[in-house]
Amino acid sequence: MDSPPSPPGAGRTEGSSVKIGALVPLTRPGWVEAGRHLLAGLELAARDVNGAGGIVGRPLELVVRDTAADARRAAAAVEELARLGVAAVAGEYHSVVARAAATSADAFGVPFLCSSAVLDALTEHPTDRVARLAPAQSHGWRIYADFLLGEGHSRIAVAIEPSVYWASGARILRDHLAPRGGSVVELDMRALTPEAVCDELVDNSTTALLLLVGHPEPAVSIVKSVRRDPRLAEIMIGAPAGQPEFAEWATLLGEDSVAIPFLRYLPERLGPLGSRVETDLRERLAAAPSFVAFEGYDTVTVLADILRSHGTDRASIARSWPHVAVEGTRGQITFSRTPGISVWQSTGTPIHVADRDPAEPDRFRILHTG
User: Fold this and answer.
1) Is 284 left (phi over 0), alpha (psi -120 to 50) or beta?
2) For the chain, is the Cβ count within 10 Å smaller at the N or the C terminus?
3) Which phi and psi angles does 269 have, rounded to 5°?
4) How many other CB atoms sit within 10 Å of the CB of residue 298?
5) 216: DSSP letter
6) What is the pTM of this model?
7) What is the pLDDT of residues 8-20, one digit of tens each?
8) d(Cα 254, Cα 251) in Å, to the nearest integer?
9) Contacts of 52 (CB under 8 A, 6+ apart)
10) Distances (CA, A) of 109 to 78, 81, 125, 170
11) What's the chain's Rg over C-alpha atoms?
12) Are 356 and 250 in contact, with CB atoms under 8 Å apart?
C-alpha cells in the first residue's frame, strides 16, 4: 500500500527528542476545561513543529504534568522535569500555581515560558529565566476598568475570595478607578451567601458586580441569585478573569450566561495562521477554541523558534528572550522588560472586552478594545 503524501513543509525527524515540560491543570480543583484547551494548543503546535522537521531534525517531545491548580505540586513537577533533562518548561493557567512554577524554574536553572497566567509578580525577584506570553494583570485589568467607566459604572462591587490573584485584581481596579471618581466595595465571600450578596448590592447602590471568585462555584450561584433578584434587574455582572469564555459557563448557566463582560486575548480578526490553527483546534477539541488554546499554540511556537536558533542549552535559551520575533496566531510576538514586571513580558498581545451575545449565546460580542 502506498503511504499517504506528507503535508507541505514536512521534514524528517531523527535521533533523540528535544523535551519541553508542559504544566497543565487537568484535574480538579484545577480549571479542567482551561487545562484541556491549553494542552490542545501545546500539542497541536508540537505536531506542527515535528511535521516541519522538528528541531534541526530532532523531534520535539512534550512531557506533560498535571498541576491540578496546586502550587506545591507544580513546583515539584518543575524539579522533576529539570532532572529529566527538559530544555525548558511551558504552560500553566492558574496565576498562583504559575508563580510557584516560575520560582522553582528559576531555582533549578530551567527556562520557563508561562502561557496564560497574568499575575504581575510572577517571581519575587527579577529573573532572566522566566518569560510570559499572556498580558500582565495590571495591563488587562486597567483596560477592563476603562470599559466600566465608559459604560457609566463608577460604583463597583467585587465578590471576592481569598487569593493573591483576586486581591491583586481588586487593588488594580481600585487604584485605576479612584482617581477617575470610581469606587470599589469588596464583598467577602467567606462571610456571605449568594443571596446576601444581593442585599449588599442594593444597600451599596452599586451598578456593577465583578466576580473575583472560583469557577464553577461560587461564581455560578452568585450569577443565578443576582439574575433572579428583581431589585437588581439593571445591574451589570462582569468577570474580568474570563470565566464566560468557556463552554462550561454556558452549559451551567444557560440564558444567565450572556451579557457578562470578560477579558479576552484575541484580535478582532485572526490572520491566515490564526485561522488555520483555529480550524485544527476546533477539530481537536470538538468545540470552539478559547484564547487559552491559542496561548498554548503560541508558547510552543516561540520555544521551537528559540531551540532552532539558539540550541537546547538552558542558559542560551534564557538569554534569547529579548531576541525573539515570532509570528504567532494572534500577531507578532516579542518580549521586553516592563517596569514592575519581574519576568520577560510579551508585548503587543491583543486585548478586548467581550461577552456572550444574548441573541446567540455561542457568539461573542466585542464591547471594548484595549
Assistant:
1) alpha
2) N
3) -135, 135
4) 29
5) T
6) 0.94
7) 334 456 679 999 9
8) 6
9) 9, 10, 11
10) 10, 11, 14, 33
11) 21
12) yes
Residue 45 has pLDDT above 50, yes or no: yes
234: its cell numbers = 439593571
Residue 235: count other Cβ atoms within 10 Å of its Cβ. Answer: 18
Q: pLDDT tens, 323-365?
A: 999 999 999 999 999 999 999 999 889 999 999 999 999 999 9
Cell readout for 221 is 450561584
Unique residue bearing C-alpha cell 471594548: 368
Coil, helix or strand for 32? Answer: helix
Q: How far is CA 73 from CA 17, 66, 124, in A?
A: 25, 8, 19
Listed residue (101, 145, 128, 163) closest to 345, CA to CA: 128
Owner of C-alpha cell 455582572: 237
Residues in the chain: 370
Residue (of 114, 90, 87, 43) closest to 297 by Cα position: 43
HSE-up (13 A, CA, CB side) for residue 364: 25
Distances (CA, A) of 226 to 159, 183, 193, 234, 353: 12, 20, 12, 10, 21
DSSP annotation string for 169-190: HHHHHHHHHGGGT-EEEEEETT
| Residue type at position 307 | L
| Coil/strand/helix, residue 18 | strand
